[in-house]
Amino acid sequence: MPPTLEEVARLAGVSRSTVSRVVNDHPNVREGTKERVWEVIRKSGYQPNVVARSLVTNRTQIVGMVIPEVVTKIFAEPFFPLVLRGATEACNNHHYQLLLSLFTNPEDQEEICQRVLRSGYLDGVIVASSLLDDSLIPDVLRSGIPLVSIGRHPGQQVHYVDSDNIGGAWMAVEHLVRLGHHRIATIAGRLGMSVGQDRLEGYRQALLAHGIPVKDELIVEGDFTERSGMIAMQRLLPASPTAVFATNDVMAIGALKALRAVGLKVPQDVALVGFDDTPIASVVEPALTTVRQPIERMGSMAVELLLDILTSPSHDLAPAHRIILPTELVVRESCGSDLQV
Amino acid sequence: MPPTLEEVARLAGVSRSTVSRVVNDHPNVREGTKERVWEVIRKSGYQPNVVARSLVTNRTQIVGMVIPEVVTKIFAEPFFPLVLRGATEACNNHHYQLLLSLFTNPEDQEEICQRVLRSGYLDGVIVASSLLDDSLIPDVLRSGIPLVSIGRHPGQQVHYVDSDNIGGAWMAVEHLVRLGHHRIATIAGRLGMSVGQDRLEGYRQALLAHGIPVKDELIVEGDFTERSGMIAMQRLLPASPTAVFATNDVMAIGALKALRAVGLKVPQDVALVGFDDTPIASVVEPALTTVRQPIERMGSMAVELLLDILTSPSHDLAPAHRIILPTELVVRESCGSDLQV
DNA sequence: TTGTAAGCGTTATCAT
DNA sequence: ATGATAACGCTTACAA
Question: Closest nucleotide (CA of B54 to C1')?
């Protein structure tokens, strides 16, 4: 139904090759011919068949975004939507398309990834927040498809973009220290993810830097869900912290609820800091002091980086790019002070 | 680098056709041959090149999800992420892939849609919440690619899945009526979208059904953002409503803030209902009474429906499918009663 | 049951 | 500057 190159060539009275040259803006085609061909293209509504083109060029102009199973359940938290917004925007700017793979169970992830990675549909892949010991990234690496990870990954060869989680956590904790707190607890995220590790590390470093001992009873691991934040807070209660650094806003909300449930007030009895600066942080009462990270930019940087790699010659040899975007403390009400840091 | 059909054939000592038959599970291939071929496939790690396959079958096993520019700014609200989760899950189950197109400006949308629609990459398209007078849906229709809309669309030929917005709005308003309110205002959503129209219609019908006149001064249009909810509430204040039905949770939050700013308490001075039951609804204080819709199911139903259409013969002729999913009132604290309806 | 060969719509090489 | 022609990796009549 839609006209093919062949037809356009016939209508314009030239060969396929010439039309192809015109379409791809090659030099060495006479101005007059070019115009004639464009005219036919316009009139006939010709659109190149990208599938046929991909078959010969070995490029699809499609990049994959894979969101691993472990984080799909928190997909609705504004983190991933914002990453996607950034990523699609960058794709639009560069005439690429984005194929989204979201997994809800490990088997799907395993099977579909294998299939999709090796099927030839993808020029490159972005993996968001995988577990450090997941086979996902090694699998992609092995497939030979260029990869960018969102979230630090220790592999020598893996390019990534991340936000400064250590620095952000540091700022959060230092803020609490400056307000006079010593018994500062933390609700860590999944320690199987680099975000989880790094935010905990920032907590440790900040404490140490101020000569405050790091105590195990003040550290509890959650999994970034509200429920886990609530449970973690309950487990923290016996240690009676005067301040809590929750490593994301959602867990901070959970902690807040747990605190309320036992009659403790934020910030009067316990100060609370979150991480992410999701919309919910400014809506909750008291408004949450938190650490802002440039989520949307992480998404767009990830595809920019990926496309860079794709279009640069010999992309295997160069050392991995590692981009760390800055974070920023946002002071609101949940620490009981409007001290600006 | 990866082996081709040809190579597998050579290794197995059969012809390309035979390998193709095995891969595609055709009948009429001897059991012994089949096993031999599978063996080679396994050992060589052969994966069919889907691009080459698509070129001949004219099927890519990819469906597009397009989120129009008008709604991208509220993309982070859990509505779209949840739709995506449902949609990708359904895709996974059916061995389809999902190509995501998110637009941040009208030009991109126009240009990219035209290009992608006619380029041959998509077997079908899902359009989420377009404006009623947008050219998007007509464009897709004209391209001949099977389409499902998320959100009602008046076109005779357009298949859609939607939630029962009229019914949901009705329930919300009726709840307020039963609590004794007469001066019930509404903050409508964009009236250029069917969601906006329908929720307003439900409000009207419920009022009328209870013999309460519908007054213009009690109706203000927002655009589903928090800011617009706040502004709308301010404009509503002179009419001194005793209850407000905000047509989504986000605008309800905006209204809440506006109310607080002038010293009015919810629910004591003004009762408030939202729509969507997004996570924020249960976190805010007071917890928001709202209308729940099965967002994730809308996403999965949309792709199921689309795939149905794709695989059913002569899909142009049959009348459009119109699926309306039920909504449900969730009573919390913002109306000052725990009356169950 | 299996193989041969044509063809899908491009791009790319090589003549002319 | 332009045109034949051979790929690209697969499916699918049609033949054997």
Answer: D10
